[in-house]
Amino acid sequence: MRLTIVGCSGSGPGPASPASCYLVEHDGYRLLLDLGNGSFGALQALADPATVDAVFLSHLHADHCLDVAPFVVWHRYSGRSTRQLVPMYAPVGAERRLALAYDADGEGLTDVFDFVPVGAGSLELGPFVAELARTAHPVECYAIRLSAGGRSLVYTGDTGASDAVVELARDVDVLLAEAAHPDVPDLPPALHLTGREAGEHAAAAQAGRLLLTHVPAWIDREAQLADARAVFPASELVEPGATYDV
């Protein structure tokens, strides 16, 4: 299993990275985790959009889904699409929400996507066994565990401190965890993790490796990493364009 970071900026695109988007590949199958704003441009430098087999959206906040719009434009008008429907795994209501984001009249996107509503539980997703858990976030959001070839990856999506995410990540090889909040007093609950909390989640889950992502452009990335490493030494910051063998 291989993970490529398409975009990793939290809460929106930053000067050095698009918003959240991650490409996971196994046995020739290509799965996109999220399509945040700015990510579709970066994706084209890493993979032919026609070779994307499926898309999973953790939730419907803009920094995780808005580049569905240029993905649709490419498939409709580039002349390079195979015209096969792309499975879109997303929370209930994604079809309507994304149609409105694309066009004020809410024109349907079912000529591009086969929408598959998701919830907590298990499903087969190409060569992957996928397990989903609801996260601690103001809107419906799911962390996902992908297992294939004896290896496993968990992507947290957006979450505050969450026992459910820890259980989902139990003994995972790689935990791709958001770390959007700085370590300051009076943070809102059930929204995002600090660097230290991401490290604590990895330690509690006995993960093999922690990759920190979704750090906003205005937050000190190195401080987030230092806080995570204080409790989980096998931590590192992801970089756009970087690839990781899981």
Core attributes:
246 residues, alpha/beta, 7-stranded mixed sheet, 28% strand
Question: What does this protein structure show overall?
Answer:
By secondary structure, the chain is of the alpha/beta class. The strands form two sheets. The chain has a seven-stranded mixed beta sheet with strand order 6-5-4-3-2-1-14.
Question: What topology emerges from the helices and strands here?
Answer:
Layout: E1 2-7, E2 21-26, E3 29-33, H1 39-44, E4 54-56, H2 62-65, H3 68-77, E5 86-90, H4 94-102, E6 113-117, E7 121-125, E8 128-134, E9 142-148, E10 151-155, H5 163-168, E11 174-178, H6 195-205, E12 210-213, H7 221-231, E13 235-237, E14 243-245
Parallel strand pairs: 3-4, 4-5, 5-6, 10-11, 11-12, 12-13
Antiparallel strand pairs: 1-2, 1-14, 2-3, 7-8, 8-9, 9-10
